């Protein structure tokens, strides 16, 4: 919709933003890299859907103490070609998302397990604060180039514990794969984290409407990884973990084992194990 050089001026705050480039597209809106009137680089998410955009902005405002999410600054509206759009301005995170990273082939098993552990604990922390991150996907997770922290950058799929799911990605949704479950958040968390591990290892995401779980298990069995990791992944996909702490401890054990096994550690380590632990805000 917008191109480089286009300007947006808010109706209420009158702040002007100049479009630099498009950086993302989701179910709710489009995200642009912009520069404000003071010359600061920021991100701007714009949409015609005032309800969804306002809800996302308010959730981000309520989570200011979590340093793994972008800060938000203001919400406003703007008229363009006789149509009203709504937008909010947030911190711009310079870095690469996980999809871009795996396309470059720079993740070892150690990296993948470490990233998955941090993401799981981030989502679990959100849950403890009363929110569920429902739209997990590789494009929504960025590794900050400056701080090396793992960041969530799209909160359109976040909802309150007692609310309805507004957005979700079928790849990481246990129900979309037809796996029997009790509709507990812990089950969804474990399944989505396990599927993330598979996607990062194989460097692709899977469509549950085109790929069966039987096929997924075959793919796992054919991977060049340890038997322990294969069993862990299959148990996670088939919803055999009853306790999230048991899953976390199992993931940590596999991470430690991968760090000590030189045969499966690549030279292109993006995130050091010790650093991963230090940046997780649960520690």
UniProtKB/TrEMBL annotation:
SMART domains given in the database record: S_TKc
Q: Sorted alphabetically, which InterPro entries does this protein's record hold?
A: Kinase-like_dom_sf, Prot_kinase_dom, Ser/Thr_kinase_AS
A Pfam cross-reference name: Pkinase
Keyword terms, alphabetized:
Kinase, Transferase
Q: Which GO terms describe its molecular function?
A: ATP binding; protein kinase activity
Residue ranges of the Protein kinase domain?
17-283
Q: What is this protein called?
A: Protein kinase
Q: What organism does this protein naturally occur in?
A: Caloranaerobacter azorensis
Starting at the broadest rank, the lineage of the source organism is: Bacteria, Bacillati, Bacillota, Tissierellia, Tissierellales
């Amino acid at each position: 919709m917008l191109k480089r050089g286009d300007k947006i001026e808010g109706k209420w705050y009158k702040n002007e933003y100049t479009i630099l480039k498009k950086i993302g597209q989701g179910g709710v809106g489009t995200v642009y890299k912009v520069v404000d009137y003071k010359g600061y680089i920021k991100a701007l998410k714009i949409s015609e859907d005032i309800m969804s955009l306002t809800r996302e902005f308010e959730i981000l405002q309520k989570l200011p103490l979590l340093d793994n999410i972008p800060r938000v600054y203001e919400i406003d509206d703007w008229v363009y070609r006789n149509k009203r759009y709504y937008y909010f301005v947030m911190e711009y995170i310079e870095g690469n998302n996980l999809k871009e990273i795996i396309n470059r082939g720079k993740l070892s098993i150690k990296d993948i397990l470490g990233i998955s552990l941090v993401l799981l604990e981030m989502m679990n922390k959100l849950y403890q604060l009363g929110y569920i991150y429902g739209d997990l996907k590789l494009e929504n997770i960025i590794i900050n180039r400056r701080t090396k922290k793992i960041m969530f950058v799209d909160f359109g799929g976040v909802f309150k514990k007692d609310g309805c799911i507004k957005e979700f990605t079928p790849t990481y949704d246990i129900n979309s794969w037809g796996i029997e479950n009790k509709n507990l958040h812990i089950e969804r968390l474990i399944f989505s984290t396990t599927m993330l591990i598979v996607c990062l290892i194989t460097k692709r995401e899977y469509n549950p409407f085109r790929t069966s779980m039987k096929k997924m298990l075959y793919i796992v069995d054919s991977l060049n990884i340890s038997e322990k990791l294969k069993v862990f992944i299959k148990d996670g996909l088939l919803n055999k973990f009853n306790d999230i702490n048991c899953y976390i401890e199992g993931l940590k054990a596999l991470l430690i084992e991968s760090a000590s096994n030189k045969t499966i550690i690549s030279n292109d380590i993006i995130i050091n194990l010790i650093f991963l632990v230090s940046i997780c805000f649960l520690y």
